[in-house]
Design a protein that fits this description.
299 residues, Rossmann fold, 2 domains, binds S-adenosylmethionine
Amino acid sequence: MRDGEAFLQGLDQKARTFSAAARATVSANDDLCSWLLDPLARWTRAAYGEQAFADAAKGYAQYCMGVWKSQQLYEKNGRYSPEPMPEIVSEVYEHEGYMVPYMWAAILIYPFWPSMINHIALYRNDFLKALPQNARVLELASGHGVMGLLAAETRSDIRVDGFDISPPAVAVSNRLRAASGLEQRVNFEVKNALAFTHDDSAEKYQGIIAAMLAEHLEDPRPLFKAIAHHLADDGLVFFSTALESAQRDHTFEFHHESEPLKMAEEVGLRVTKLVCDAGSPVRGGRFLPRALGMILQKR
Ligand SMILES: C[S@@+](CC[C@H](N)C(=O)[O-])C[C@H]1O[C@@H](n2cnc3c(N)ncnc32)[C@H](O)[C@@H]1O
């Protein structure tokens, strides 16, 4: 790890409680974590300056505390208790002061949480490296934009169109994009992923990314329909979601790995690889937070 070390130093300085665990995960998975953190650190420094590493650390700490509180409440109530969707949209997705720190956390959990490490491997080795030559890639819920930018950085033959419902998230992704030198092949826009369901265009993509989106929807089935509709016959999907993991903006509660798997099968997709790892449960709790990732293709 070279440039990416700046994110860990940010934790040392601004979120010390979280630093040792993050360092342990990174050093046990140096190849995967460097693949993500090194380019991200270069883009971050160029886009936002040195201060961004402290800001990212604060955002990560704030997010981890929020997740911990939500999981406690989940255990108490026995179900997710999200705010109504219009409030999630105005207080989370449209709120710059909330969304920007959240976006730093959303990408930093990949290298810092042991339950997300296999997602990096699945994304890089089983999705990006396996995409057809010159693939057009659609990213739904591109958020910070880092997955799409890493895709273009890793595969110099592909193009990526990313969409996210959140204007402040798209602003972050566009700032990193401008610093990445990948502008010619990556584009980010504000758009509701569910708009793709009703979009009858014949546009097909050889790669579709829908990472950590399904649990944010009231019903993920239209998302699976949209994915199946827009996937080219030789295309691949990287899909991921959270199970039994409460968060302020998690609305759809998956309990079993079979639930997203069945939703994929119902729209004519086949699962070729699946990973699922548990995070830390509340002690004595009945729910086990997990992160599931799948590679899908047409049957
Ligand atoms: C946890 S973040 C995931 C970001 C990124 N895909 C990742 O894996 O790190 C969830 C993202 O979903 C976006 N989102 C939520 N509902 C959406 C919708 N209906 N259409 C598009 N984006 C949505 C949010 O704005 C946020 O950027």
